[in-house]
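Example record

The entry below shows one chain as it appears in the dataset: sequence first, then C-alpha cells.
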Amino acid sequence: MKILTIEDEPSLRELIQRSLEKERYVVENATDLQSGLRKIEDYDYDCILLDIMLPDGNGLNVLEQLKKMRKRDNVIIISAKDSLDDKIQGLELGADDYLPKPFHLAELNARIKSVIRRQYHDGEMDIRLANIRILPDTFQVFVDDKEMELNRKEYNILLYFANRPGRLVNKNTLAESVWGDHIDQVDNFDFIYAQIKNLRRKLKEAGALAELKAVYGFGYKMTVE
C-alpha cells in the first residue's frame, strides 16, 4: 500500500512517515502544491493525505486535478483550517475524509485503513480470494486456514494483486506501488522477478487456488482457478 503525504510542516510530515512505515506502508512526501501535483500525475496512490494550506497554493487544487484525470486515489484532508466551508468543498471535490489538526496518529492510521477497506473490500476487515484469506491489520495470510510465511515484499505483492484480481498490471506500476517512486533509479527489475518467483512458489506449495500469472512482455495478473 502506497501513501502520499502533501504537507509543508517538516516535523508533522516526519511523524506521519515514521508512523505509517511501522504499519508497512510505502510512504512518499510532497512539501508543496506543485510537487504534490507532479506526484499524482506520475504515480498512483492508495491514499493521499492532503493539507489545504500549502505555501504555494490551496491543497484543494489537488482534488480538482484528480477529478480532471479521473483518478480514484483515496484522499484524507488533514488541515488546521477547520471551517465548515472548506470541509464541505473538500468532500464535494471528492475527498473521502477530513481530519482536523491536531490529531492522534492512531486515529489517522485508523481512518486510512477505513477508506482503503471501503475502496477495495466493501468495508470488510479481511480480504478473501478463493481459498486465500489476508488479514491486513496483522499482516497475516492463510490458505485453507493454514498460515503462510511470507516476507514483507512478498506480502505486499500479494496484497496488491488481491486488491486487483484479474487486472493486468505492468511491472513498472507494480514496482512503484510496492517499492516507491525511487524505483525509477534502478537499472533492471531482477529483484522484483525474484520476489514474485518466490511468492508464486509459496502459493503453489500451500495449495492456493489463486495464481499469479506472468503475461509475456507486459506484467502479471492474479487469476483464480
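Notes for this example: The longest strand covers residues 74-79. The chain has a mean pLDDT of 90.
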